[in-house]
Amino acid sequence: MNDTYGDPFIPEQVANTVTKLAELRTHQAPIAIFTKAGYHPDVLARLAEIADNDNIIVYYSLTGLDEGGISFDERLRFIAALTGLFRNVFVFTRPIIRRRNDSPEHLRRLAQAAAELTGQLVLGGLHDAKKRKQIERPVELRLLDYCDELGVRAFHKTSCAAAWTRQRRCWVHDIGAPGKIDVAASLGYRLQVGDDRVVLHEGSTGDINFVRMLTGAEVYVDNLLSNYNLLTIGAPRKLEMTSSWFAWSENIDTCLDCSYCIIKQIEYLKKMQVRIGVHPTRLPEIVDGEQSAHALSQLRGNKLAPGSGGRKRYGDVRIEKPCRVAVYQ
Question: If you placed Cys at 159, which of 43, 116, 172, 188 could pair as Cys (CB 3.0 to 4.6 Å)?
């Protein structure tokens, strides 16, 4: 929800966020909010209008880097206020950046904040020199150790955390025999179905993510067109599916302008006004029933590494992490 250029909980965007959340009041699936906004009483007053929806999961990106000039203490104050409104709030350690906030002292500070405020945390990625998110194993283990020591429930992915809060299957890890094939086909996907998999003739990483979530099965694509999260099904606006979430967002002119921002490097987002996605129930209404590379045709890059051809699955295009839902059941 509003996770592109902007922030769902800043004064400039909160009205749009509240409108979207009000429209999703009867939606039955978890709704993810990612924010690193500062404390603002007017924002909290608006959020109180929709805070009774238990499907809303708030992930507060806490890094200790004082993005936007917002101090660590102010962020803790806002997290505390959010826990007073929403049933499920997580500290999200995203990003951890090498030699900036990956020291043992810094990691423990983040875990301690989670212990004192939320009791639950999601590990974000550690950025390398090219801002690719891949947390290093020693850093990951140290942060998990601190969480275990302090009694903090810790998860590798936001999808796992949301599944645990709502006592649902984890749609990233709990996969099996394909289902809802008719729905995928009606949206325009050309696919073949096996006992334990779905095979797309062509598609993007976003298509792998989306069809995997939709069908509950492992998805392979024979011709990977792009490593972007954009979907290739035809629609009047861009559709995006991350490894965990279907996006419904709007770029605005105002953000915290974090020094590590990757949105500005994504050519279909950048710092420009653009809408991504729709209310999930409107998907059948807006797609044209065709699958093509049209959504990707005007993009200069496709983020494909050299030699990345051939059949691909989720584990080939994204880093797989273990599910920790069962740890806390």
Answer: 172
Q: Are 82 and 89 in contact (CB under 8 A)?
A: yes
pTM above threshold 0.90? yes
pLDDT tens-place string over residues 31-43 = 999 999 999 999 9
Cis peptide before 95 (omega within 30 of 0): yes
Residue 23: which of 61, 58, 49 has the closest Cα? 49
- Closest residue by Cα to residue 146 from 167, 128, 166, 121: 121
In angstroms, rounded to a whole number, what is the distance separating the alpha carbons of residues 104 and 191?
A: 47
Taking the C-alpha atoms of residue 248 and residue 310, their distance in angstroms, rounded to an integer, is 31
**Cβ atoms 96, 65 nearer than 8 A:** no
Q: How far is CA 258 from the centre of its chain?
A: 18
Helical H segments across 48-71, by residue range: none
Q: Is-contact 92 124, C-beta < 8 A?
A: yes
The rounded distance, in Å, linking the Cα atoms of 249 and 17 is 9
CB 77 within 8 A of CB 39: yes
The 10s digit of each residue's pLDDT in 53-93 is 999 999 999 999 999 999 999 999 999 999 999 999 999 99
